[in-house]
Amino acid sequence: MNKQKWLIVGLSLAMAATLGVGISACGGEKEPDTPPTPTEHTHTYDAWDYDETQHWKYCDEHGTDKSNIDESTKANHSFGQDGKCECGATEGEETPDADLDTREFYVVGGGMGTLKNGTWDGPKTGFQFAKAPHKDANGNTVYTFTMELYSADEFKFIEKNAITQETDASGNSKAVWHDELVFTLPDLDVSSVTGAFARASETSDNITVLKDMDGEYEFTIRTQKDGDMKANKVEVRLVKELEPLGIESQYEMYLVGKIASKATSDWPSMLGVANVPSKCYKMELQDDEETFAIEVELSKADQWKVWNYKVGNVNAGYYPTGVEGNLSTGGGPDGWYRVTWKVGDANVTIAHAHRYTAWDYDTEEHWKKCVANDGSIDDTTRAPHDFSNGDTCECGYKQEADPNWKIDANGTFQGYEGDFENLVIPANLKVFPEALGDLFGKLNDANNYPNETNWKKVKSVTVAPGNKKFKMENGALLSADGKTLYAYFYYNTATEVTFESVETVGHSAFCYNDKLQTVNLPNAVTLNKFAFLETTAIKDLSFPKVETLTGSAIADSSATSITLESVTTMPMSSINGCNSLTTVVLGDKLKTVGASMTITQCPQLTSITVKATTPPAGVTGSFAAFCHKELKIYVPEGSVDAYKTAWKSNAAKIFAITEAVSVAPVEVAMLPEKKD
User: Fold this and answer.
1) Over 50: is that where the pLDDT of 2 sits?
2) Number of compact structural domains in the chain
3) Cis ω for the linkage preceding 320 (within 30 of 0)
4) Fewer CB within 10 Å, N or C, the chain?
5) Rounded CA separation 416/440 (Å)
6) How would DSSP label each residue in 251-286?
7) Which pLDDT belongs to residue 454?
């Protein structure tokens, strides 16, 4: 930043060439050879004057005239602890030059530094220059003022007690004091200001601070009481540079005025009224760090402006400026608008802001559109209808109920009377009872539900738009979260399927499937009734995490082996009617089994392994019934006696697991020996 440390500005101060007029004791004029005109003036001795040793009071009604002294007030100085006398003298102070210029100079304006709380009103609110007590070497009275200035700050100089040259009745030139006159210095040539400053405009005498020229500046005015008005100068010196202020330090933008959507809105009565912003709409600074914006509801009758609340900033105030500059929607409809204002740009932009709060829909999906009904829609709101809370979607669309499905008010299945060829799960179905599992599993009486021939007519199954409870995946009807498998449909001809997310296999889920050879359910925990009924192609069923089986969970299956490493509960007839089953393995977590016949009617079953060291509770009769007559139940070696005691009806069939290993095929027998 190239800041000049000294900026010299020609400044003419209206000065008198001479004071060629007689002045009375109180400042009244008298003409030569003319008796003085009597006056009724009464002196008021309320102004102090002093020298190095004494002080006194004088009448100051006419400016600087000190000829009327109250002799009774003459006394020596009395300095207090602060080194000051009541007259204003300072201990050790030199007596001011008697003929110093007696005018007062001020800075007025607005800005974000020293001028932050300034105004343009004059001496009462301006910042006064300090006057040196002695003249400089050239006989000038010296005034100084130092202030912090930031980019866009604007100011000018004014003076009080100005001197003008006038002619008396005899034609003689005289200097006349105007002690109440406040005016802009008329001869300040701002066009010559360079460096940090410039004229505010071609028609203005105001001075502005240029961009990035923030700093603390000292201004010096040098005057001569009897000098040439054109000879006086203003000197400017940079004291120190300042970091530029951020946008948020300079601007706090609001919408103000008569706005119907904000009942308390109003025009601010003046800048700086602390409670005004609460009545207005605050605009937010955008990411570009230059633009303030807000979306607000406006009506055609509203009248308003944009307003900067940062008091003192030269840009504080209304936009656009001018009494007739009120803003409106420009004839647009009542509704939401986006209002923007950019720093350094007096223009305010107003554009309709879409508010997507009105619903629109067709028979399958819905979306939101702008309340202005201009055809604009929010594509992010497009979604299938949701009838999870009844037969009417939140958008207002009421579904056409499928007459083939009987669904009660709670969303529970009551019956189906339609064609099974292309099944559509209705949107209002929320609860999947066993009866629906029976329907899909073709387990009930053929007189009430379709026979096998009709069941195999199913070619597709879909879930109606808006149903949030179910989904179709890989030929199966699942819960929306994929954790429950309700039904696996016959039309899927795959021989192997995997369902990673399934934790619960529903009632009759896989029954009557003659295509599946392998079903992978790595995270299944529960197998419900008839889950694997008459699965006639499956050879091995292994579920590493299944903990609970209900009655007949695996029934009439063609499986030759069943492994349940994590099972904890097996009620009566958990596994039954499996004619090809030879081997069952139950893990070490098994705790409860049925009172009798937990595994039943499996004529080829010769081996059951139970790895639990403590005999599972519940057996009072035969643990496995109607199975191979040479069936053996293998348990941990150290638990054989405990099992025989707990399972008395099965005692003759219980052996140690090590005995099963001893008769295993060679490749198993040659496994590494167990080490102690």
Assistant:
1) no
2) 3
3) yes
4) C
5) 11
6) --EEEEEE-TTSTT----SSTT-TTSGGGSEEPEE-
7) 58
